[in-house]
Amino acid sequence: MKKLLFPLLLFSLRLSAQNAQQIHQKAILIDTHNDVLSNELITKFDLGKRQTEGDFDLVRAKEGGLDAQIFSIWCGENYGKGTAFAFANREIDSLYALIKRNPDKITLVHNSAELKKAVAQKKLAALIGVEGGHMIEDRMDYIDSLAKRGMNYLTLTWNNSTSWATSARDEVTKKDSLPHLGLTDYGKQIVKHLNQLGVMVDVSHVGERTFYDVLATTSKPVIASHSCAWSIDPSRRNLKDDQLKALAKNGGVVCLNFYSGFVDSTYSPKVAVFLHQHKAELDSLTKIYNDGDLANIRLNVMYKTESDKIRPPLSLLIHHIDYIVKLIGVDYVGIGSDFDGAESYPLGLDSVTDYPKITEELLKLNYSEKDIDKILGGNVMRVLKANTGK
Ligand SMILES: [Zn+2]
């Protein structure tokens, strides 16, 4: 009897993995946040071909069953008036160039109807998310211009506040010295203007006060393009239970960020120890790359065994999804990986090829195919359609 049980178990495991692949490939998978365009190191590579560095290219995206990607357009807070908008446009140019070089693999889409058409043509649907209100340089006409070039969402702030909206970082660290808190009247006009243009309002990165001001102002469902559950990991970038409930009431969607620091509350102290142990190398790498985050990514590759040890298990990311589903229902959760934007992800998630593992884990928790479809992309599709009208 025992002799029979083992092959039977192997057979059923293989069957469930096959089942997961089938469900995964059939579903429309939309990832609402990827930083590959803003990663100057990665843009040196031809993303039309398989790469050994970085988290994303068009070959691996296909293998991972990715159907639509909202590419993040981002520049740091050192870019300001006179430079930030121009930089955003340069990044959009680089997306256009990627599409032009790979017309059989990727196409720009503006709404859910075009997204579905791209999926039918077996091309990756590319969308644009502008991550940081500082890139509009306080000008309404710059919003129009970015929308014309394909902007599908505007993240009202990055870590830095604008003159019209306060960020999560600043609301926590500079609360008493901020010239204003939340959205100003001009900020409210911006939200209404985005609603009119059919551009989704992204509340990832904004402070709690701005978050609630947005919900009181917007006439359309909003998106949190890359955030997790605060109750599991109390990072200021994650959403508290009341925020999640308010988001559901608005009909919006929160898309889960894979970054280890937003998934696992024990990651930050562990990574601090790791970086301290390799301080000399980190300093010289930071000089070479002129960027601390890129230096950290490089260091993780050099000391893979050590850096793997501090990565959270994949089950913890799945726990965020399951927690939010139990709190507000299955209609408000999506995927916003932050691939190419962070130095560490849960074990097993190494690049865009690994999305099917999420489907596998959800099946293990007895999620139905219908619910998995919603989480992988159906919910984001609904919010996109509600904003663009088609
Ligand atoms: Zn971000």
UniProtKB/TrEMBL annotation:
S-adenosyl-L-methionine in keyword set: no
Pfam families assigned: Peptidase_M19
Signal peptide boundaries: 1-19
Domain of life from the UniProt record: Bacteria
InterPro entries assigned: Metal_Hydrolase, Pept_M19
Keyword presence, Signal: yes
Keywords noted in UniProt: Signal
PANTHER family (UniProt xref): DIPEPTIDASE (PTHR10443:SF12), MICROSOMAL DIPEPTIDASE (PTHR10443)
Protein name: Dipeptidase
Organism: Mucilaginibacter dorajii
Upper taxonomic lineage: Bacteria, Pseudomonadati, Bacteroidota, Sphingobacteriia, Sphingobacteriales
